[in-house]
Write a structure and sequence with these properties.
Layout lengths: L1 H16 L1 E10 L6 H16 L1 H7 L5 E9 L5 E9 L3 H13 L11 H12 L7 E8 L9 H7 L5 E8 L6 H9 L7 E4 L5 H14 L8 E2 L4
Parallel strand pairs: 1-2, 1-4, 4-5, 5-6, 6-7
Antiparallel strand pairs: 2-3
Helix pairs in contact: 2-4, 2-8, 3-8, 5-6
Length: about 230
């Protein structure tokens, strides 16, 4: 019986160690995102996950990646596009990409409730597999203008052990990068990736995913601008 218990404990420890990253992708679909922007974002996300370098980073031998994807806009609106899935095979990743491509744009564009989106991401992390790192990757093109503020969300909820990175799209609001730097990102190695225009979103997302999959650079909080 003792030998069996020890074997079970070893299997449990090994299973927990097998996941190196739980990554939740939070995508802004608020009213500033028109149908053309939505198409760019959707296809950009699909292409980034299909990219050979991103796929190689996902399927590195040192552990699996767990992925969840949700869309967010106004207060109380979060759409879980992809529930948590362990990307332990190319087929699992391809199925997630298919879900992204088939999800329609919300019919009633809403405001930008970024604080609510982060709170939802925190709750979602509670359902994630046990992984070495937990990262919420939030993309958006505007400041919070609905619901609870980002600062208040961080004050009242416990984000210990969770890194929040940002992808700031700079086409609609001035100083959006500074806002993401000072208000949104947090945790070890947190950073902001910049897409100056919506058309830069796919390349910026690809770079961002590669950084997140490669692991944190402790103490570095930086902005990487898109080229062009």
């Amino acid at each position: 019986m003792l030998r069996l218990a020890c074997a079970c404990l070893c299997l449990t420890t090994s299973a927990e160690a097998d996941c190196r990253l739980a990554l939740a992708l939070a995508v802004d679909v608020s009213r500033s995102i028109d149908s053309q922007d939505y198409a760019i974002q959707t296809e950009g996300l699909a292409l980034a996950l299909q990219d050979k370098d991103v796929r190689a980073a996902i399927f590195r031998p040192e552990g699996d990646v767990a992925l969840a994807i949700y869309y967010w806009s106004g207060r109380g609106f979060q759409d879980l596009v992809q529930p948590w899935v362990v990307l332990d095979s190319p087929e699992a990743l391809d199925a997630a990409i298919w879900k992204v491509r088939r999800t329609p744009r919300p019919k009633a564009p809403l405001a930008t409730a970024l604080g609510d989106a982060l709170s939802y991401g925190l709750d979602l992390m509670g359902d994630a597999p046990e992984c070495d790192r937990r990262v919420i990757d939030v993309a958006g093109d505007g400041r919070n203008n609905d619901g609870i503020s980002v600062a208040r969300t961080y004050e009242r909820e416990d984000f210990t052990g969770i890194t929040v990175n940002g992808l700031a799209v700079g086409e609609h609001e001035a100083d959006i990068v500074r806002y993401y730097q000072t208000e949104v990102i947090r945790g070890p190695g947190a950073f902001v990736e910049l897409a100056p225009r919506q058309s830069d979103y796919p390349d910026a997302l690809r770079r961002k995913l590669l950084r997140e999959l490669q692991g944190p650079m402790i103490g570095q909080i930086s902005v990487t601008p898109s080229r062009g």
